[in-house]
Design brief:
Structural class: alpha/beta
Number of strands: 5
Strand content: 5-15%
Oligomer: single chain
Radius of gyration: 18 Å
Strand order of the largest sheet: 4-3-2-1-5
Helix content: 40-55%
Largest sheet: 5 strands, mixed
Number of helices: 13
Length: 258
C-alpha cells in the first residue's frame, strides 16, 4: 500500500510529528505530493526540511516547476525529488492519488543514486564501501573485507538489491506479473518472489507498491539489525501502520491511501 500526503497538509503533519515525539514514524510507502508552486513558502519548506531529514525513505513527487525549485533548495535530498508527468486527472480526483503512488513506485535508481542514498543514510565510510563495490575494479575479496569491516551485507546482496529495485519499478509501471518479469529478464519465475522475501522480508507485490527509497530502508532494517531493527514504537507495524501516525493523520483528514 502507498500513502499520499498532499503538500497543503505538510505543516499539520509536522505539528503531529512534534506532538508525538521520537515515537512518531511515517510508514514505508509514504509519498509527499506537491501540486502547485504556490505551496513553496516558508510554512511549507521548513517542515518539509525536517520531514526529509528524519524520514529518509519518504520521496517527494511534485509538478515540474516545484520539483526544479525543490532540487535546488534540498540538494542533499535531490535523489528523492522527482516531477510527475502531465496527468489527465487533477489533484483531489479519485484517480490522482493512485497515479502518483504508481509513478513514485515506478522510478528505478541508478547505482550512483543508490550509493548516494546509502551514504546519506549510513555515513561516508559505509557509503564508500558500497560505492567501491559498484565503481572500483579490483580484487573482490578486498571489497568483501571492506563491506564486512563496516558490518554491511555481502557483495551479491547489493548487486541483487539494485537489480531487484529495477525489476520492481517495472512491476509498478506496467503491473506486470511475476511470470512476465521472469520472461523479460530470463530468470526462473520464482526469482522475484524469493528475492523480495530474502532482501525485504515482504512479498514482491508489497514491495512493488513502495518507492525505491522505502525498499532500501526495509533492506537495511532486515540486514543490519541493531540500529535499524526497531525504528518504530512498540506495536507499530510499518506494513500495517495503525499507530499514532494514522490515527492522528486520519483524524485531521491529511492522509490518503492509494
Amino acid at each position: 500500500m502507498a500513502f499520499i500526503v498532499h503538500g497543503m497538509f505538510i505543516r499539520s503533519l509536522f505539528e503531529v510529528m512534534n506532538l508525538e515525539g521520537e515515537s512518531f514514524k511515517v510508514p514505508l510507502g509514504t509519498v509527499i505530493c506537491v501540486e502547485t508552486p504556490s505551496q513553496l513558502n516558508a510554512e511549507f519548506l521548513a517542515p518539509l526540511a525536517c520531514i526529509l531529514e528524519k524520514f529518509p525513505w519518504v520521496p517527494v513527487v511534485a509538478e515540474p516547476v516545484s520539483a526544479q525549485s525543490l532540487r535546488v533548495i534540498f540538494r542533499q535530498a535531490e535523489d528523492r525529488i522527482c516531477e510527475y508527468p502531465p496527468l489527465a486527472t487533477i489533484a483531489g480526483s479519485t484517480d490522482f492519488d493512485p497515479t502518483i503512488a504508481r509513478f513514485a513506485a515506478g522510478i528505478a535508481p541508478t547505482s550512483s543514486a543508490l550509493v548516494s542514498h546509502i551514504t546519506m543514510r549510513l555515513g561516508a565510510g559505509r557509503g564508500g564501501a558500497v560505492q567501491d563495490l559498484f565503481t572500483v575494479f579490483g580484487c573482490d575479496s578486498t571489497k568483501r573485507r571492506k563491506l564486512a569491516a563496516h558490518q554491511l551485507p555481502k557483495p551479491h546482496d547489493w548487486f541483487q538489491l539494485l537489480e531487484t529495485l529495477q525489476w520492481l519499478s517495472e512491476v509498478a509501471v506496467s503491473d506486470a506479473t511475476q511470470a512476465e518479469i521472469a520472461w523479460k529478464h530470463s530468470v526462473d519465475p520464482k526469482t522475484l518472489s524469493v528475492r523480495c522475501r530474502r532482501l525485504f522480508s515482504v512479498p514482491w507485490r508489497t514491495s512493488a507498491k513502495w518507492p525505491w527509497q522505502a525498499r532500501v530502508e526495509q533492506f537495511l532494517r532486515v540486514h543490519l539489525g541493531g540500529e535499524f531493527s526497531t525504528p518504530f514504537s512498540p506495536g507499530f507495524d510499518p506494513l500495517e501502520p495503525q499507530s499514532a501516525f494514522l490515527l492522528s493523520i486520519e483524524n485531521r483528514k491529511l492522509y490518503r491511501s492509494a
